[in-house]
Structure prediction request, 364 residues.
Amino acid sequence: MRPYWHNLFRRLQGVEGAGPPLSPVLRAGAAALALAYGLGARARRALYARGLRPVKRLPAPVVSVGNLTVGGAGKTPVTACLARLCRDRGQRVAILSRGYGGRASGVTRLSDGQQVYHRPPEVGDEPYWLARTLPGVAVYTGACRYAAGLAAWEEFKPDLFLLDDGFQHVQLHRDLDLALLDAASPFGSGRLLPAGPLREPPAALDVAQVIILTRFDPGRHQGQLAAIQRAWPGKIVSTASIVPVKATSYPGGHTEAPAAMRHQALVAFAGLARPEVFVATLQELGADLKAFRAFPDHHAYRRRDIQDLADAARALGAGALITTGKDWGRLGERWDGDALLWVLEVEARLADPERVLALLDRGR
Prediction:
């Protein structure tokens, strides 16, 4: 999303610091577009559900990990968590990703589980992050997940396909649908795109077998959990946390536990759908955050960006910069800035992994 549209979207959501409130005329226009968008989303799903458009099947079971909102629910970390669990049980897993943000067209074999063949910007940052953090798991990208799955089947023969961000990819049959909701704000403002963050109305959750509240904090989110359980009583409703697991400094590649960030004077930056989540993580770690710069989601960093960040760190008396694992991929996994850079990696932890794995087995 280009910076202008990125900022406009954040202003429509009322995100603090995104800019001044939009005019009533613009808000009314966005509401009208949201109404049309909602009708289209419902009609599209109905066409596939009623067999009026063909649904294609892959040769192995398909599990979709998706959500209702635009970005920020933790789909990619949860996909990685499921891939690890299945891989560690001896299953051959292939992840199918749209590959958003990459330049490559058609089907791309990003990883065969042994070797990573492509890097950003040729491929998107999210599938690349999956490929580099999941040895033994194949990762294929393509706008047509069916074509990507057939290529993975021919070359890798997986026991299971995982769709990263697949809830709206209804043209492909899935044996299990996992829908993720951010525990702090399951439906955002409750408005559909472009007036709000919803890709589909909440009623679309009726087709999911499992609903997972991510970034769940038992002390703060019990009300949201109870509300989802009441609204969808026939569903399995579970939770997941997304936790920092390590911090690596560059140049040098020295790794520390995330607790090493406590009291460190840092300037943070990230290009994420919800950059405020990264800020909250750093605050929970006790970092002395001097400043934070939010870039558009999937931002392609330029040398000027790096220099500006290093200058800001020096001016604010920060000892280092810090960013996310996904941003590290977009930096080319190379750092030649004037300031030390920390890269913080996270993992998803399912509250009830055995129950989810039992569902996977049942669908096989």
Remarks:
- The CA atoms of residues 253 and 342 lie 9 Å apart.
- The chain has ten helices and 13 strands.
- The domain at 243-346 is CATH 3.40.50 (Rossmann fold).
- The chain has a mean pLDDT of 92.
